[in-house]
Amino acid sequence: MSRDKSLKMEIPKQKKREFSYSQVLHITNNFKTLIGEGGFGKVYLGALEDNSQVAVKLLSPSSKQGYKEFQSEAQLLTVIHHRNLVSLIGYCLENNMMALIYEYVDNGDLAQLLSEKNSNVLKWNERLQIAIDAAKGLEYLHSGCSTPIIHRDLKPSNILLNKSMIAKLADFGLARAFTDERDTHLSTQPAGTPGYIDPVFQRSGKLNKKSDVYSFGMILLQLITGRPPVRRGPEDMSFILDWIQPKIESGDIEAIVDPRLASEEFHVTSTWKAVEVAMSCVLPTPSQRPNISYILQELQECLALEMDQHARIIDNNNIGTINYSRDYTGNSEPITILSARCNIPNFGPIDLKLVYFWKTTRPYF
């Protein structure tokens, strides 16, 4: 059986749009703009009839491993949808060509944004919001689907950000779905990215939700410290867990946080809480690690602490504005009820639900 027939049988056509080869040529302008490349093949920038941009992932005919990942991704993305997952728009299976067409996420990936070469340093609250967005996407995979899905390759380069700085999980080529929601683990060939892969999964081949939690914890540590899981020097390697442990024991939060954030004001409790959450994710025994729903709740509390501090600073100094969705006026004083992504000067975009009694009390989350 040819590859295209095999894949056709496994993609539910009614769920996504099918593109012809000529349409793919047209939307990519004859594959004019290459925006990425991997073991599966190449990714090109395209534009649909309504001028919305898309990313077209083209499978290389010579890639056996790429075909398996391509097929897995096609199967999963036709049946899942979430604000914090990159959306599949359609596919092409024609003339021995296999392509997946995704929404184009135009603000790069987290690895690029955390790079030392990037002059636009992510603010602390932006890092927390990215972690929250990623946790929401992962929570959906683990608990919001008919059967749990394990991503299996969480890393900064697989967290994409759009122009509104909303983070979306991407690259489901290694993802695996449980056959039954009561299953506790899958036995499979270890796969993932060194530094982010769960050591227990790497040794045993037993995959479960806590394998993703470990990877998420390593990403969270990178968001906090600015350091990758492994740093290779001229003569040796430095592992982030070995580096951070003595600093935690000495209580030196300033030595832990990314030095590029030194000029920012931090809520110490919020920062320590984020460190504690990250360290709980990478505990040696998977059963000791928290589930992603608990992690999400803790990270939202971290952001609330940060917002509490900054909102009080704004109120006390009578500076800045909050763009809100609705304004309700009571009998004695205005009450602003906000549920949106907002921008605060010198602070950045945040997602929150906030009731604010202007100049009388502090925000309540």
List the main descriptive attributes of the protein structure presented here:
disordered N terminus, 3-stranded antiparallel sheet, alpha+beta, Phosphorylase Kinase, domain 1, 2 domains, 11 helices, 17 strands, disordered C terminus, 365 residues, 6-stranded mixed sheet, Transferase(Phosphotransferase), domain 1
Helical content stands at 25-40%
Q: How would you sum up the major sheet? A: 6 strands, mixed
Uncertain ranges: 1-9, 180-187, 318-340, 353-365
What's the tally of helices?
Answer: 11
Helix and strand run:
HEHEEEHEEHHEEEEEHEHEEHHHHEEE
Query: What is the number of strand segments?
Result: 17
Categorize the overall geometry.
Answer: globular
Oligomeric grouping of the chains:
single chain
Gyration radius (Cα, Å) is 22 Å
Please, how many domains? 2
Overall description:
This protein is of the alpha+beta class. It has 2 domains: 3-103, 2-Layer Sandwich (Phosphorylase Kinase, domain 1); 110-306, Orthogonal Bundle (Transferase(Phosphotransferase), domain 1). The protein contains 11 helices and 17 strands. Helix 10 (268-281) runs antiparallel to helix 11 (292-317). Residues 1-9, 180-187, 318-340 and 353-365 have low confidence and may be disordered.
Task: Provide the fold topology.
Layout: H1 3-10, E1 17-19, H2 21-27, E2 34-38, E3 41-47, E4 53-59, H3 64-77, E5 88-94, E6 97-103, H4 110-114, H5 124-144, E7 149-150, E8 159-161, E9 167-169, E10 176-177, E11 186-187, H6 199-204, E12 206-207, H7 209-225, E13 230-232, E14 237-239, H8 240-250, H9 253-256, H10 268-281, H11 292-317, E15 326-329, E16 334-344, E17 348-357
Helix pairs in contact: 5-7, 5-11, 7-10, 10-11
Organism: Acacia crassicarpa (northern wattle)
Domain Protein kinase: 29-303
GO molecular function: ATP binding; protein serine/threonine kinase activity
